[in-house]
């Protein structure tokens, strides 16, 4: 049995499709899970409840923790450490391997122009400190020998995804769909890499089913040839057959708007990821699995057609 905790999010569905290459026993866990594959086992659960986490994990060989909590530091600070602790304890009790789908918020801001698995951990945001805490909790358990696990990190992602968890989808693609200007943060002239969701899902499934991939950190496959914000907006405009306009928001404006729009208050502390190049290096994964990440134009075309 392979179990996805957070199956209703952006990664859960694509991951369930990829896991069919390895097993026909897939358990989908979320508040209201829906089948992705015909044989999926649906397990409704509130993953903020420790007992329900244990029930969801029981009988699993591999557990994928891919849940996405609302983008709110109060929720993250309360729910993430508890969920990580409960998931670790459940996996230890039932001898399940754990795959944690992570992001890059914990890295030092000076590492952003070239992030690798060895980049220094020194978060400069509140959300980054939460991510550093839960990642370290997992790594400490691995080091103590009581847990077999791995961390699979992705950059900001894009593609035909569910929900509103992709900044590129929300601020560029969906704004253009509505006839609005595309939005960008800080500077539209810095290079930015994005992880294509189908690549992230395939990479996560590969790692979860590769014995020697465990007990280490991996960057999920991401094309390193980033584009600038202007280039991304132009690319979406090209394939949406429209003259795409762009508006760039400085950090001071996001902070001001945040007084009235809560999500902008949450995003303001992350502007350092846009005022410099943001290059996510997945060379370790690409070499190990002979993987070629999608070209950005192919990913944009897929997003426009199926997003």
TrEMBL record:
Q: What is this protein called?
A: NAD-dependent epimerase/dehydratase family protein
Q: Spell out the PANTHER family in the cross-references.
A: BIFUNCTIONAL POLYMYXIN RESISTANCE PROTEIN ARNA, UDP-D-APIOSE_UDP-D-XYLOSE SYNTHASE 2
Quote the Pfam families the UniProt record gives. Answer: Epimerase
Q: Which residues form the NAD-dependent epimerase/dehydratase domain?
A: 4-210
Under InterPro entries, the record lists: Epimerase_deHydtase, Lipid_A_modif_metabolic_enz, NAD(P)-bd_dom_sf
